[in-house]
Write a structure and sequence with these properties.
It is built from two helices and 35 strands. The chain has a five-stranded mixed β-sheet with strand order 1-5-4-3-2. It has a four-stranded antiparallel β-sheet with strand order 6-7-8-9, with no helix packed on it.
């Protein structure tokens, strides 16, 4: 299935001046396969036979060029063609791709093939693709185009399904043998949708979801691609959208459209990192800040009332950090400093008196009252005060994960950073770029956020277990992440 449980972290340091709300390096690709993990790296493959590799999930580079494969470059994914998908089944990787079709070469006579490999690493001695096997085709005359395949290994039955097709006709469903990658004997294709292409099938909580790419392709900044979805209790459909329209009659609920100076999202793939932590991968037809090139995109995947929708990475800025448990604000444990105000009794106000704007309390007015050295943190009623303002800054040069760059979290206007301690508590210390002062901030499927220290002092390796946790209404600490508990969840408010 296109949903894969991955969690690979890298301590590799990267330095970049590019924005961090998009993938860094050379993420140039069209029609990317769902991201796959192999030998401590991430891979995705695209139209034309090429592919990308990443050590940390955020910085990407061309596989063949970065590994200096030379004459062996074509072996990355032999056969060329279009819109591959890759799925690990057991200890092997199954690749499916369209050899022609989609108007390539001037026609819609397409062929879809599968092949196997023990590894995705071209430098491994085990790297060798099997002979491709055709699983379906279109003759260029029928109302169908065999291209843009996608794989789903049904977690409830173990059956292997493929959806494929373009605007030129229907989206079809076939079944493969998960042991061989060949078409199941006697399987008859089934039409399940129209008016989309580059589909993907996923299963979640008793529903099958068909995600299709709607709109126009391959026109750079003028491409209108967007991703829509329908769902069904049966893998064979019908796939209905949120108002009951069948995707076989043009239905589909929006998942992601153009935005953030990027146009044409298409070719959805889902990755499950952890309970409640999911990502969607896709390509943008054009990134206006990267010469209008087609680039890889990765965003949090949220679920609203049973429907998938794209989330957002946290961006640099000043925030209040509020616990989902009660809504209290993460703050320095310092004395509350009252604001001066000439008060009027509410029962005796002079309504002829001009209104005045009362300025907000500033850091300069209160910082001198704070203790020197480390200051503990707590949660309290949000009052938009300086001890409750946090500046969140991405630090991609210190490390990244598949979900995004690491962040430092400072009291606004200071270098006082949120810091994990060896006792699994949290405090604030002068920022020294220590791994205990770097944080993964990941949007969860319900829209809240998980905040995890990159490392906990005294513990071996990078932290994959402990998160910022509201142990009580006013007591932040570190504890084992639990998606089922609001204690593990936080919100960021501008």
């Amino acid at each position: 299935m296109k949903s894969k449980i991955l969690y690979i972290l890298s301590a590799t340091l990267w330095f970049s001046t590019q924005t961090v709300n998009a993938q860094l390096g050379e993420p140039y690709i069209h029609d990317p396969s769902t991201i796959a993990a192999c030998d401590g790296k991430y891979y995705t493959f695209g139209t034309g036979g090429g592919g990308l590799v990443s050590d940390d999930g955020w910085h990407w580079r061309d596989i063949a060029r970065s590994l200096k494969l030379g004459d062996r470059a074509a072996s990355v994914r032999p056969g060329g063609g279009a819109a591959p998908d890759v799925l690990k089944i057991g200890n092997r990787y199954l690749c499916i791709y369209g050899a022609t079709g989609g108007g390539l070469g001037g026609g819609h006579n397409g062929r879809i093939l599968t092949m196997w490999n023990k590894t995705l690493n071209p430098l491994s001695p085990d790297f060798k693709w099997s002979t491709p096997v055709e699983v379906c085709a279109s003759d260029g005359m029928e109302d169908q185009d065999a291209i843009d395949p996608s794989l789903l290994l049904d977690p409830t039955t173990g059956r292997l399904w493929v959806s494929y097709g373009t605007y030129f006709g229907t989206i079809r469903l076939i079944e493969l043998d998960p042991a061989t990658g060949e078409r199941m004997k006697g399987n008859v294709e089934r039409d399940i949708a129209i008016d989309c292409e580059a589909t993907d099938l996923i299963w979640r909580d008793g529903w099958y979801y068909l995600l299709g790419t709607h709109g126009t392709c391959c026109d750079g900044v003028n491409s209108t691609y967007n991703i829509v979805v329908g769902r069904s209790r049966s893998v064979e459909g019908p796939y209905l959208d949120n108002v009951g329209r069948d995707m076989f009659h043009g239905g589909g609920r929006m998942v992601i459209a153009a935005g953030d100076r990027k146009t044409g999202p298409g070719h959805f793939g889902r990755t499950v990192l952890d309970d409640g932590v999911e990502l969607m991968s896709f390509h943008w037809e054009a990134d206006l800040d990267m010469s209008g090139r087609s680039v890889l995109g990765i965003r949090p995947l949220l679920w609203h009332n049973g429907w998938p929708v794209a989330g957002e990475q946290i961006r640099q800025g000043d925030y209040a950090i509020l616990s989902e448990r009660r809504g209290y604000s993460l703050e320095l444990a310092v004395d509350f400093v009252r604001m001066a105000q000439q008060r009027e009794r509410f029962w005796d106000m002079d309504l002829t008196k001009p209104l005045e704007s009362i300025p907000a309390q500033t850091l300069d007015q209160v910082e001198a009252t704070w203790p020197k050295g480390d200051i503990a943190v707590r949660c309290g009623d949000y009052m938009f005060r300086p001890h409750q303002h946090w500046t969140v800054i991405p630090v991609p040069e210190a490390g990244c994960t598949l979900a995004g760059p690491l962040y430092k979290i400072l009291i606004a206007g200071t270098d006082r950073a949120l810091t994990a301690t060896a006792a699994c508590e949290v405090t604030t210390q002068t920022f020294q770029n220590d791994q205990s002062q770097l944080w993964r901030i990941e949007q969860l499927t319900d829209g809240t956020y998980r905040i995890m220290p990159y490392a906990v002092p005294g513990q071996q390796g990078l932290n994959l277990r402990y998160c910022l946790y509201s142990a009580g209404d006013s007591t932040p600490t570190l504890a084992v992440y639990d998606f089922a508990s609001d204690n593990s969840k936080w919100n960021f408010r501008k």
